[in-house]
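Chapter review: from sequence to fold.
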Amino acid sequence: MKERSWLKQYGPVILTGIVVGIASLILTAAGNPKNMGFCIACFERDIAGALGLHSAGKVQYIRPEIIGIVLGAMAAALAAKEFRAKSGSSPAVRFILGVFVMMGALVFLGCPLRMVIRLGGGDLTAVIALLGFLAGILVGVVFLKKGFSLGRAYPVRTSEGMMLPGIMMVLLILLVAAPQLLKFSEEGPGSMRAFWLISLIAGGVVGILAQRSRLCMAGGLRDAFMLRDFTLLSGFLAIWITITIGNLVLGNYHLGMLSQPVAHTQHLWSFLGMALAGWGSILLGGCPLRQLILAGEGNGDSAVTVLGMIAGAAIAHNFAIAGNPDSVVDGVYQVGGTSPAGMVAVVAGLVVLAVISITHLPAKEAAS
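The token string follows.
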């Protein structure tokens, strides 16, 4: 009986993690950048570029994986009768949080999901980011225990809940039927992409399974710290193990800190960038992947958050906030890292999150 209960609790999320890991390996083999089979922050940044919201020519492409995740989550929610159109939980604050979560992730060069994927490829720079992410989660948990809340969401018209899935459908139509209206990278990470249908299917499968299992790394760490519940966290352990094994078998595992794909070695700013992303994710109630899933379920506040992250990606590249990867030029190792603008943005983001955290405590707690 206990074994059956264990399987019921952990089985769906571990299965989701394994599938995400396999999908990531397939997408990388099919053309996506190394250690970037899935990256919510990177892919939303590419979408912003494809729409002309920023002019960084190396990161412009409508990523079907993002479209697939949202539409897959919507399909799963509708099938399970869990689609609930609701909104009204501090949408403006959520937009700003989305902006800063994206900035923090792009300073590191990856979202929490890519952080795990990078670990699975042997990228030890992601260990520093993981420590920062943990620190940000812990700060967020402190405020949750003090009563932090962005308020409750209320039922709204179904059309409100369909807004982000509708936008994703429009993006898919543009990609397939009117690509001349979009921008496409001819070099760099944006030019490395799997065939669109493979990416769409992979995203759709992940969206369906993540909706059913509630997969979320920020939520997994939050639950582990607050409730000693490791269910959600087991999904990300499954992703890491699956990708590690896959890379070892395929000969793509490269342990070290130097010369890792789309990564840099400015460890302090990787730490602080992911601390910003982790803290913001806790305040939002979920990591960037989870926000896509919730938006697919009809949550208008999560849809606003996703739009905030896309706007944050545009701001990050228009104002040189995003990190630059290390590279080798003519046999000489060139250190990339974080620009002064990126450093200012991360510090400013931490200050903004502190203000939001304090001002959304219960009145009695805030007064004391």
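Two observations follow directly from the output. DSSP finds 16 helices and four strands in the chain. The mean pLDDT is 95.
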